[in-house]
Design goal:
Largest sheet: 5 strands, mixed
Pfam families: pPIWI_RE_REase
Oligomer: single chain
Organism: Paenactinomyces guangxiensis
Mean pLDDT: 91
InterPro entries: pPIWI_RE_REase
Number of domains: 3
Radius of gyration: 22 Å
Bound molecules: zinc ion
Strand order of the largest sheet: 10-11-12-13-14
Protein name: REase associating with pPIWI RE domain-containing protein
Strand content: 5-15%
Number of strands: 14
Number of helices: 17
Low-confidence stretches: none
Structural class: alpha+beta
Distance between the termini: 51 Å
């Protein structure tokens, strides 16, 4: 049953994304996936005794309502969240997509193109540089000069071009503030500053040594002549924000061990060179433990295999690993004999082993 529900939600989200493109384009034909999604939803609605979504309007009306109104009881999707809000996917829908969907569903195109290119061309150095620039909070919102300088570090012209297309002009920078966590632009929403629609940074406030507050953020400090750019919202949401704990873990490890970022063209996030061999880490920033469980369930056997040995581990950054998080993940992935650890557990775990050698 739960797989059917996952599929039902997934197809609704894909259809909403396509429907949004359709609304913005001059295309007169509603995408087929909308009809497919509406029929799937109607079938489900009838099963749970609700009124069917006979037309596109009814379909949309359901999807902007809390999911409990159209999904019924379930343990997959937050009952109070809709799929669509404020002209975009809801935060819950984004989390869902990240856990259950494919990278193509949520990653911005330049990132996917560079990954494919670097895997084909065996271009490890260029890939690491590209990703490091995108996860640098100092480069989240920048002027033309800084953008040109950053891009100038990339030797490969294809990667450089894709890097530039990860930014959009940001002329209204002066009405925004600078996020003290990720460097991206804060907007005011219901009287509160928030960081992107997902506002993950606000949830990290107060966790793990953070001494900042979004509500006390500072203005951007550009001049009126500056042409300003910022990272695309999708890069901010899916690369920059999760990249911040990732680089912190990298930094912490690099103080004691030899470490490598994105080894084998992003096969893993971090590789640690220990006396006993290498340890590969996949840093996972899922807000909910069941999303990490689902991510692990969905992996192919060959992708999952390294994590069933001592050679690879899933690591949950401290600010995500709330009490009970890892217990939940580990008890639900027991059948694979996979052990996910928190950032601090990882550092503690490595220490004695290395010390006594
Ligand atoms: Zn932020």
């Amino acid at each position: 049953m739960s797989n059917e529900l996952q599929e039902l939600i997934y197809i609704q989200i894909r259809a909403l994304i396509q429907f949004n493109y359709y609304l913005r384009s001059s295309n007169a034909v509603i995408p087929d996936i909308v009809t497919v999604a509406r029929r799937r939803l109607t079938k489900h609605l009838l099963q749970i005794g609700k009124y069917p979504a006979l037309g596109v309007n009814e379909w949309l009306r359901y999807l902007v309502e809390p999911s409990e109104h159209w999904l019924g009881n379930n343990d997959i999707f937050d009952p109070l969240s809709p799929l669509w809000e404020e002209g975009g996917l809801s935060r819950e829908a984004e989390w869902f997509l990240e856990a259950y969907g494919l990278p193509e569903d949520f990653q911005e195109r330049p990132v996917l193109k560079v990954l494919t290119y670097c895997r084909e061309e065996d271009e490890q150095h260029g890939y690491v540089l590209f990703r490091s620039l995108l996860t640098n909070s100092h480069l989240a919102v920048i002027n033309q000069k800084t953008l040109t300088e950053a891009a100038g570090k990339i030797v490969d012209s294809f990667i450089r071009h894709q890097y530039l297309s990860c930014y959009e002009p940001f002329d209204e920078w002066y009405i925004h503030k600078k996020c003290p966590c990720c460097g991206w632009s804060l907007s005011i929403h219901n009287g509160q500053w928030r960081c992107g629609r997902s506002n993950t940074c606000s949830e990290l406030e107060g966790y793990y040594l953070s001494k900042w507050s979004l509500q006390l953020a500072e203005n951007f400090n550009f001049s009126s002549e500056d042409q300003v750019y910022r990272l695309l919202p999708g890069i901010h949401r899916f690369i920059l924000v999760p990249g911040i704990p990732e680089s912190r873990i990298y930094q912490r490890l690099s103080q004691r061990y030899e470490v490598e970022l994105y080894p084998e063209k992003d096969e893993f996030d971090i590789r640690v060179y220990l006396k006993s061999g290498t340890l590969d880490l996949d840093v996972k920033c899922f807000k909910r433990p069941r999303h990490l469980v689902e991510y692990i369930n969905k992996l192919s056997n060959s992708k999952r295999e390294p994590f069933q040995t001592n050679r690879a581990k899933f690591v949950v950054p401290n600010e995500y690993a709330f009490d009970g998080y890892l217990e939940q993940v580990n008890s639900q992935t027991k059948k694979y004999q996979i052990q996910a650890v928190s950032e601090n557990q990882l550092l503690r775990m490595l220490e004695p082993k290395e010390k006594f050698r």
